[in-house]
Amino acid sequence: MVNFRQIFLAIACSALLWAAHTQAATVSSAAATKRAMVLASFCAPDGDKAAALEQLVEVGISSDAQDRAWARQIVGAIRNGSLACSAHAHATLNGSPALDAIDLQPAAHAAVDTSDVPYVPSIVMMRKLVVASAEMDLFAPQQESRAAAARQIDKFFALLDPVVVTRAIRQERDPDTVTVLTLAMAKRGLNSSVKADRLAAIKAVAQVPSETARTALANFAAQDSVRADPDVLAAVQSAIRGIDTWLSFGRAMSILFSGLSYGGVLLLTALGLSIVFGLMGVINLAHGEFIMIGAYSTYLVERFMQAHLPGLFDAYIFVAIPVAFAICAICGMLLEFFVIRFLYRRPLETLLATWAVSIALIKLIQVLFGSQNVEFITPGFLNGGMQVAPAFFVTYNRVFAIALALLVFLATFALVRFTKLGLLMRATTQLRDMARCLGVPAERVDRIAFGLGAGLAGLAGVVLTQIASVNPSMGTGFVVDSFMVVVLGGAGSLAGTVVSSLALGEMNQFIEPFYGAVAAKVVVLLLIVLIIQKRPQGLFALKTRV
Amino acid sequence: MNTLPEPQTTRRLSLSALATKRMGQTVEVGIVPVLILLALYLPFAYFVIPEANVLHLSLFGINLIGQIMCFALLALALDLVWGYAGILSLGHGIFFGMGGYLMAIYLLNGAYAETHVLPDFMQYMGASDFPAVWKIFSRLDVTVLVTIAATALAAGIFGFVTFRSRINGVYLSIITQALTYALMLLLFINDVGLGGNNGMTGFTTLAGHRLADVSTQIGLAVCSSLLLVVAYVGVRFLARSSFGRALIAVRDDEARMRFLGYRTHTLKLFAWCLSAVLAALAGMLYVPQVGIVNPSIVSPQLSVEIAVWVAIGGRGTLIGAIVGAILINGLKFWLTAQLPAVWPFILAGVTLLIVVYTSNGVWGTLKGAGSADKGGRR
Which of A541, B2, B131, B282 could form a disulfide with B70 if both were Cys (CB 3.0 to 4.6 A apart)? Predict the structure, then answer.
């Protein structure tokens, strides 16, 4: 069979055919017979084309790598309409040069009959072909193509081959794909006329609870034939109830999760605010603009890495963390040095002064970067997410937000609790005049604390680049929420900040599905105003003597 | 306020503390005739003085003066609570907006009676008629009375719970700011029925006068100026009465006043409600002059800006608030037309310079009255 001249020719043909050709070089005679049989039954004028296709798929999922490639190419050729059957049940693939369908070698000129009409599949046949190639793809080594194939099969579930799909489910390791395939199988089973098949299918669907599974069952339950049969109807209804339980659990979990991530961002923004407020009694209306500066620092880091270090591009988010912190801390210390320290005994004027700084900063960034949203390329490892439970999808960017907030909180806690600086900060917070008498450099502590607070806001900006849109006025919306966190939690109290930011995040997300995002904000704000009436110094007020 | 005990010594002390330089006093009193003259000058400047003359005012200019007078009234209202009671409200836009929105409802009632066409936003919402509540606002006098009552009630409820739980200082400021923000978000929603994002517009008549008429617009500007004068005289009288002095004492040391037997939260509550009503009246005059009301009227931005006008002019001086509002808004209208990109920097720069490096704004510094304020907790 080996023909070196043919090999040489085939290499010249095309890159696409190269793989098939090298395999063809060692096609055994047994394989050739099998292929010929399959082709013959497909080409037979009165033959069962569907049955032939099944045989083809069987070859396509066999253990032999060459056979698999061959079957795939034949199915592809049929779909393209390039397979032509000649009168004596011999097939060729049209093209230049025309190929013999059995060994995919260029056909001898004598064998090519130009009068052979290519087989043009009907619409039904076309769908069958799609399913057939998807069934073959179910055994592909790449997980993405298997998942895509599973989705195709789910789309045309009525046409799938149960034997093949069951085999695929047994081999599959990706739980998502298994779910999709099981559901497709079950949907096919629901359409069966045998009662046992239907009951089994219902059970199978109940095993893979999801929104689509519920829809499938609900549609099924609405059929007349189902409503006539009490056994099937009862089974369907209990299955739907089971799925509903799972779904509501998943929904609750996902609300909890998004509340947690929102709370994490709030924690990052409010931590600095709370420290500064507790220490100096100063509310910094420009705090939101430090978030914005942090986000724009991330943007600059991203641009820089893309231009100069494309290999390490995905790591830009980690590079941005110290950079944004440093930039914001420096800005914060400058603000303290030039403005805040003149206003220590006049907290209300500080509000206005920091407001002035904030409008100037917003305008400055608008002039420098434009007022439209800045686009970010998400690092690969933060893209996508994971299906943890039905209706509960965990996205990695939110996990990142929660993790960073947790780490930053622990670091801040350690700083305040275990370092000398923290000791001085606590002393100044509790009783400034006494601390100064004992030699605490209160001015320097203030400056460092203000820088720290600004830096923490910058970190919030880094996180927000991954979960929210970045524009010059992004800080203004967040800053009201973080003020509320501080007011609710009590100034200067780290525990209060954690509790109230999580509570605020969760409350927001829990009310949102019922009344909408805006109403959620309004309700939460009003609720806080009410709580404040009862506890004017916040939930976790520090004992200070001012 | 008759219940207030008035120890004679306190009165002497306060009088001497409040004694200002003769110069300052002349100006403080002098602004009244100046504003009245300005009000009288407006129609004269448009109708009598020929257009070529420098003293002639276009309708645009008169409209602008009317708007600025409304802002000055708003600043005066804030100065009453901030300068005298030490309550920095970052939510006076709420009351300004209440007046504005209720006035807009009245104006839409008038427009509907005339054209029998529902406003666009109602048609989108699928309404076939005005909500029943809106019918209350079909007469101007009723609208004014209801607005005053509603604002006083709203301010009263908020003030009562807040002052009673002794929330003050920065806490109060950020809570009022949060409420402003919440109200703005609420007004953005279409289902609230107040025009949503686009607000309400398409006003035609005000108490029988066509809003498009020159005379109506001039009349509104004159009214704004005169109301400012009346409010200034009234607030100044109040501030110099025993009530005003008690208020200053509360600002400087609330605990001590409480121990002396004053009901400090009642004092603050009265000033707070009065201030809210003044702000609402300013809003009622403002909306027909600009011809539209939308949620930006209750944006936190505007509310902070009011405080900035007062701070720049000098809080606790009343005249400072008026001068600050007129200066900053005049500058704003002029500069946003000339150099729109530079205006925020100028506003920020002026605010920073004055707030950081003067003890109490322009007027407070000129008057040299900062001495009484320096030690106080505000």
Answer: B282
